[in-house]
Write a structure and sequence with these properties.
Strand order of the largest sheet: 1-3-6-8-7
CATH architecture: Beta Barrel
Structural class: mainly beta
Strand content: over 45%
Number of strands: 10
Order of helices and strands: EEEEEEHEEEEH
Radius of gyration: 21 Å
Number of domains: 1
Largest sheet: 5 strands, mixed, barrel
Distance between the termini: 28 Å
CATH superfamily: Nucleic acid-binding proteins
Shape: globular
Helix content: under 10%
Number of helices: 2
């Protein structure tokens, strides 16, 4: 078994570039910045902020959502797969390009941070699943007592 999953929370570096391929298939690409905050060590040494840039690619319906709602500076939560492709540059050198192919995207921040259009929900969740737009279901509350966790009856006969 193997897993290829990236989870990122960051800010969009520039307005997304959206292209339409044959049969009205949309593809959006943009950069996302994630920053680890700097700190001061015990001995007083300053460690500066460290920003990493990620290349994000969204397809089909998710790309259309990006086109409508995402702009430079938008804060996003992204889930996706890491893909690396290679190509030869004009000098014949092999180059590697790593991208995150987004499966799920969630707009973060305040409504006023988003584009002037109406966004469905303050933290709107979007997925590349066929339905297009999904909303986050409320999380079930955690059991409050051991009886709640066990179902209220500790004398259940378990079949094993």
């Amino acid at each position: 078994m193997s897993v290829n999953k990236a989870i990122l929370v960051g800010n969009v570096g520039k307005d997304p570039e959206v292209r339409y391929l044959d049969n009205d298939v949309a593809v959006a690409s943009f950069t996302l910045a994630t920053t680890e905050r700097g700190f001061t060590t015990r001995d007083g040494q300053q460690v500066p902020d460290r920003t990493d840039w990620h290349n994000i690619v969204c397809w089909r319906g998710l790309a259309k959502i990006v086109e409508s709602y995402v702009k430079k500076g938008s804060q996003l939560y992204i889930e996706g797969k890491i893909k690396t492709r290679t190509y030869d540059d004009k000098d014949g050198n092999k180059r590697y390009f790593t991208e995150i192919f987004a499966d799920n995207l969630q707009l973060l921040g305040r409504k006023s941070d988003n584009q002037s259009g109406s966004v469905p929900g303050e933290n709107a969740g979007f997925s590349s699943q066929p339905s297009g737009i999904t909303t986050q279901a409320p999380q079930p509350s955690a059991p409050q007592t051991e009886d709640d966790f066990l179902g209220g009856d500790e004398t259940d006969d378990l079949p094993f």
